Amino acid sequence: MLYHLTGIRQRFNDRTVLLIDHLEIEAGRIHALLGPNGAGKTTLLRLLAFLDAPTDGLLQFSGRDVGYSRAELLHLRRQVVLVDQHPIMFTTTVAGNVEFGLKVRNIPKPARRRAIDEALETVGLFRYKQAPAKELSGGETQRLALARALALKPAVLLCDEPTASVDIENQAIIAALLQQINTDHGTTILFTTHDRVQAASLAQRTLILENGRPVPTSHENRYTCTLVTDTNGTIHYNLHGRVSLSVYADTTIHPATTTGQVYIDPEKITLSRHEVQQASGSQVIGTIVLIMAESGKIRIVVHVGVVMVVLMDRTAYERQRPAVGETVALHFTANAITLLEQNDQRP
Q1: Which terminus of the chain has fewer CB atoms gathered within 10 Å of its CB, N or C?
Q2: CB 94 within 8 A of CB 129
Q3: DSSP structure string for 176-212
């Protein structure tokens, strides 16, 4: 395990902003870090980049306890690079920006030239090599920041919202670059994002922070919703104002409107080709964005207006063989949906 965090607490003044009892981050994989603003994502990145020391707790890297002496921090920081959401470019050329970190590390000039060219080729900026860095667009600046990091050949690449401030075209380019860096170099990558679709399609593991604490990934199928129960016992769910479900529950339920949060069990969602209709329950139509093995089952991520995770057993998966990019139907029954928090609005 590359990182091992135990009893980590980070305080600023009198406020605790991060509280992690236990967290492990595996080497060689892409990890997505999700959570609302203020959840502690950037604080965690700074700890993992060895830029800050935790108030309390133990941080281990590559099986060794992290010490915070100047010599040890210098050694650790040479293995990890943090790319900020809004990277600052030096007032020099594109090549000069990539060269800076190499100079600091006393890399010989011929090796610096090779590293610069390779990094700029990788991110698609070689033709801008001698252009002033300040003239690049937002997306190009983010790609240059990746080139600066890539030239240093880090073991770990930490990216804070790498696609948040760029256009759609550069979002796709940056996501592809992260995948390429991980595949070609075995670099461990952890990136923060608010985009659950991007996290699902790019990362092999998703970490979620809420109020500074890790929460189970089952929260991926947790949605804010409005529920309306009609006189026939059918509950109408409106998830995040974007997806509607209508599921028969119990004819004894009285009409009511409720707001709250629901959790949809990924093992109780049935998937089929979208042209197949189901007589009971409810269905929504979506597109598969990710398929991967997980704990003996097949994890399928479907975008239905919100991101929804389905866990299929291998037998069902082998029988249907759904594919990424395919349009499918997801079917629900009442026992698949659990109301977690509610605010009854009945008069």
Answers
A1: C
A2: yes
A3: HHHHHHHHHH--EEEEEES-HHHHHHH-SEEEEEETT
C-alpha distance from residue 55 to each of 7, 20, 70, 102 (Å): 10, 12, 18, 32
End-to-end CA distance of the chain: 54
Cβ atoms within 10 Å, residue 187: 22
241: CB partners within 8 A, 6+ apart: none
Q: pLDDT digit string (tens) for 22-40? A: 999 999 999 999 887 888 9
Residue 142: both structure tokens together: 């983010």
Instruction: Give the residue from 321, 315, 332 showing the smallest Cα distance to 270.
Output: 332
CB 326 within 8 A of CB 287: yes
Q: Note if the pTM is more than 0.85.
A: no
Cα gap 176→39, rounded to integer Å: 27
Query: What is the C-alpha to C-alpha distance for residues 67 and 313, in angstroms, rounded to an integer?
Result: 44
Q: Distance between CA 216 and CA 319 in Å, rounded? A: 30
Closest among 271, 270, 267, 268 to 326, alpha carbons compared = 271
CA of residue 42 relative to chain centroid, distance? 13
H or E, element range at 327? strand 327-332
DSSP 132: B
170 has pLDDT over 90: no
Q: Where are the alpha helices (DSSP H) in the chain?
A: 41-48, 70-77, 94-104, 109-123, 138-151, 168-185, 196-202, 314-320
* Region for 133 from its dihedrals, namely left if φ exceeds 0, alpha if ψ lies in -120 to 50, beta otherwise: alpha
Task: Quote the CA–CA distance of 222 and 266 in Å, as a whole number.
Answer: 10
Task: Please list, in sequence order, all residues whose beta carbon lies within 8 angstroms of the beta carbon of residue 102, skipping any fewer than 6 positions away.
Answer: 111, 112, 115, 116, 151, 152
pLDDT tens-digit readout, 100-116: 999 999 999 999 999 99
- pLDDT score, position 345: 43
Quote the CA–CA distance of 212 and 44 in Å, as a whole number.
Answer: 9
